[in-house]
Amino acid sequence: MINTTLHIALVGNPNSGKSSLFNALTGLNQQVGNFPGVTVDKKTGGFLLEAKREVNLIDLPGTYSLYPRRTDEWVAYKVLMGADPDLKADLIILVADASNLKRNLLFCSQIIDLKIPVVMALTMNDLAAKKDIQIDIGGLEADLGIPVVAVNPRKNKGLAELKKVIAKMQFDTAYKGRQFMDTAKLAPAAIAEMQTCFPQMVEYAAIHQLINHEELLATRPHNELINSIVKRNQFNTTKTQAEEIMQRYTRIRQIMQQNVVETGPLEKKLFTEKLDNLLLHRTWGYIILLTVLFLLFQSIFWLAKYPMDGIEWGFAQFAGWLSTVLPNTWWSDLTINGFLAGLSGILVFVPQIMILFGLITLLEDTGYMARISFLSDKLMRKVGLNGKSVMPMISSFACAVPAIMSARNIENKKERLLTILVTPLMSCSARLPVYTILIALVINDHYYFGFLSLQGLVMMALYFLGSFMAMAVSYVLKFFINIKEKSFFILELPMYRSPRWKNAGITMVEKARIFVTDAGKVIMVISLVLWFLSSFGPGNKMKEVEKQYTQMIIAQPAAKDSLNKQLSTEKLQHSYAGILGKAIEPAIAPLGYDWKIGIALITSFAAREVFVGTMATLYSVDEEDNQSLRQKLQAAKHADGRKVYTLPAALSLMVFYVLAMQCMSTLAVVKRETKTWKWPVFQFIYMTALAYGMSWLVFTLFS
């Protein structure tokens, strides 16, 4: 028994210091995954007790009581009720906030009555001292009948004592802890019958089985048996729960009076309350919020620019070196333009993902993230979302991939799904190259009042269009998504604290790893498929074109570079991708596009910024020579002599890229987060249809 691994579940109310204690106990020895069947994060870690006994610590989602309402609360509830087949906890560490002990004791008392071995880790003791709250820990231990240890995870205080207490507890015999209240009196007949059918079940667990047996028990006969007990005894769920909570708080008030000394209601306001008066002000609160979001948005660009450029440069150099040392064969092209290009497309997102989640973690640590959700909830709720949707949507201005991943903190299933479905409509940084070159083509570089750039105003209008359509689509979809889960926006405003840089670093590394290992697999497969479509074609047409240009190069060696670029264009035109471009030309012609734009629409599905590179290849110019590319695009004409890039066509194309789902990385992440292909397929269809309709409307209005 001594050498076996001890499994401990870490539970507590939200904002009680649970994550801080988890990080302090486990350090860097952590893993992040998903609970089976849900998208709630599962953090596990390890540490050692005395006698080198290993501990597997799992950080369960925060919850206020054993009456769950949200998906993450159900996860913790099932573990505590012993209904999770993948996790059986030998011990519970309950994290309780010393500055708000009365509320924390409700959850604690319920766990005690489940007869589960439990240790209370009392946090926020420094904050309690500032509020002039004094707690008699010895008396609290005596009244609760469980060990209570004061800890400060941020300063690593009390951790050694907590480990000693855990090591001294016995788990090899049936646990016979004290009872907090006589739960058998809540429904004596029904509980007695339950214990006759299930002899090992304690009284309080029987109550929860009577209430939630359909979610807790997997076998149909057991559910039918309990249903019959409920009917025979006329068990009233609402009445039982209300009586229980009232009795618990009666006992909790007695414990608080005996062991806790608090100041009166006229105590002076803490710094947190004074700061909230400013940050949650009707006017200044929103101004500060916009400033913070602007700085966050800009920081993702500023800080990620150099590592992203470095990754692209490194892959370009490596690809260039490989092209000189590898033979000119199909597998060399697959390695360089398929595998290596796909890997580059995955890793180039990593800096943005790490920086975004690092900054969000710092905002959460300081306590300001909850204030952002609080301020934006009123607007978000009108369109079917809630305040917690604002951060994924704002983050999507940088990249929709990490933004969708960050939507996990939205508890309501419908609001989380709506957030995921509309977040890609926000204009991400990958759209910027498309916007920039098209605006430069058709919009005059004119200034109003000497400082308002017309090109800048058009760029701003494109960003506004994406944001407006996200709100509009969410408002419409909320009537069609049939998820009957009640929306609760219960938000506790945490205390302001200094950020923990180590915690931010751990989060950055873990989120990057999850993206590379999970979404990266799908991205790589699609990249290889796109390489195949762009490199091969039916019949011998591509070989004939290559043979023709080889003879031309031999005849005109001085024009080798120019002919090679024309060869690339001809081969692309006769590839499967080129044939697809020609095939969809009749469908995109009403939008003002030609077959070359059709190819760009297909190839830029890998990433929107590929549009510019595809155009550069099609028009046989150097990708880095943007001026030459603009000149070629300006001179491009249809077969009948009409210009391709007119103002209506360019505006139509800009609107298409604002609204279309031209990003396989985003679809891969949506599939991972929703655990089904239904929603990414729906997302692709509705965004493509919306983009087509709006682009046709713009082209028609401006023609």
CATH topology-level fold name of the domain at 6-168: Rossmann fold
Number of strands: 11
Q: What's the CATH first level of the domain at 6-168?
A: Alpha Beta
Can you tell me the overall shape?
A: elongated
Q: Can you identify the CATH superfamily of the domain at 6-168? A: P-loop containing nucleotide triphosphate hydrolases
> Which strand order do you get reading across the main beta sheet?
2-3-4-1-5-6-8
Gyration radius (Cα, Å) is 31 Å
Give the averaged pLDDT, no decimals.
80
**Structural class of the helices, strands and pairings?**
alpha/beta
Distance between the termini: 80 Å
* Architecture (CATH level 2) name of the domain at 6-168: 3-Layer(aba) Sandwich
- The DSSP helix count reads 30
How much of the sequence lies in strands comes to: 5-15%
- The low-confidence parts are 620-627
Walk me through what this model shows:
This protein is an alpha/beta fold. Among the domains are: 6-168, Rossmann fold; 183-261, no CATH class. Helices cover 61% and strands 7% of the residues. It is built from 30 helices and eleven strands. It has a seven-stranded mixed β-sheet with strand order 2-3-4-1-5-6-8, with helices on both faces. Helix 3 crosses helix 10 (237-259), helix 24 packs across helix 25 and helix 25 (595-603) packs antiparallel against helix 26. The longest helix has 42 residues, at 284-325. The radius of gyration is 31 Å and the shape is elongated. The termini are far apart.
Question: Which labels suit this protein?
Answer:
703 residues, alpha/beta, seven-stranded mixed β-sheet, two-stranded antiparallel ribbon, 30 helices
